[in-house]
Amino acid sequence: MNFNETLNWLYNFQKFGIKLGLERISYISKELGNPHKNYKVIHVGGTNGKGSVCMFLESILTSAGYKVGVYTSPHLQHISERIMIGNKRISDEEFASLAHNVKPIIDRMMKNNDPPTFFEIITAMAFQYFSDKNVDFAVIEVGLGGRYDATNIVDPMVSIITNVSLEHQNILGKNVKDIASEKAGIIKNNVPIVTAAKEDSLKIIENVANDRNAPIYQVEDKKWKRLNHNQGGQEFYIKGSLKDYSIRTQMLGEYHGENIALAIAAIESIQMNGVYVTDTNISNGIEKTVNPGRMEIVGYDPVILLDGAHNKAGMESLGNSIRNDFDYDKLTLVLGILSDKDILSMLPTIVPLADTVITTKSNNNRACEPSDLKGMITKLDNKKKVIVKEKIKDAIDYAKSVSKKKDIICVTGSLFTVGEAKDYLVS
């Protein structure tokens, strides 16, 4: 199969939807020779910030001279962004070759009427790729939940649960306690767990950690503080277990202080288990880290800001960043959200900040119709100016046409929306 044929083959498995459970990924991995056991793993779960924490960890470990693979989801612009080594994505040829090698296993599963999911196949491919390339470390992001996520067959040196808030309630549970229980499923016996969870979700995680004799380190708000910031980046004070740090990052958004503190706590944990990483590796790694599509400025006069916030907590963080970190006249919001998200909880956190909202949709088949999105916004505020544009490029063009130099255009609601916007804006 060439690359395009590979994509067609893979995307055909999306029709099987989400099927939680470890049986299928365990079978595929066993048939491949359990490649995920051939390198050290850091496992990253939680609600928000997972991708950024993964990128901080990759950059720190790469700065320390290690060969580091990163597996994240979903992708922003290209599927190969999901599987990276040293911040370089897998080539189309290598991606197709991996799929070709795993296909006979998948064919046998199909014959046995036990088809794997799209995510399970990509996960197995990532595990194999990192083994083929002899990485020292793989930073693996949980896809959904934790307990029954396909990534949860790894044996990590340290696990991370960034935070817990409401998401995927139709799958993970109706309340934060239920969701925390699912995310706590990545905690392994005797393996350290680092988390920024709070209140009820923290209690759940602590109980599971105690049951599994897993040392737990909580990143509390008092463990980090923003020292200064501008549109070129920001500086944080981080109180670690081994020392205190003054850290600079080019990434925007005050919430990254928590993500940096989580990454440093995980690094300190593996340092105490014999992994050599210097303070300079930590500071240089964090300063070099980028994570496209998350508080990313892609244009000026007016500022064009991309952020993949896709749940209530993410929108709250975005709203706080716009309020506190930008000096602007008017905000035009280009908004495209997936229909299976809790849209009604997201809108009140961001819509009141906008002077104009342009509803649109990505090419994803789960995208909410822009007209439906407009109806929800109008119920929230019937005086809010809401414009419907079916295509993202038309929404951006309209936003540009009504914005002046001192305004902000913010594209948000989904990484799928942001990815298509970036395709259009950045050639």
Structure notes:
It is globular, with a radius of gyration of 21 Å. By secondary structure, it is α/β, with parallel strands linked by helices. It is built from 15 helices and 17 strands. Helix content is about 40%, strand content about 20%. The mean pLDDT is about 95. The longest helix has 20 residues, at about 90-110.
The mean pLDDT is 95
Structural class: alpha/beta
Largest beta sheet, briefly?
Answer: 8 strands, mixed
Total helices: the number is: 15
Low-confidence stretches: none
Q: Roughly how many Å is the radius of gyration?
A: 21 Å
C-alpha termini separation: 28 Å
Summed up, the domain count is 2
CATH architecture descriptor name of the largest domain: 3-Layer(aba) Sandwich
| Order of strands, widest sheet | 4-3-2-5-1-6-7-8
| Overall geometric form | globular
Top-tier CATH class of the largest domain: Alpha Beta
Percent range for helical residues? 40-55%
How much strand?
15-25%
Total DSSP E strands: 17
CATH topology of the largest domain: UDP-N-acetylmuramoyl-L-alanine:D-glutamate ligase
Task: Give the CATH superfamily of the largest domain.
Answer: Mur-like, catalytic domain
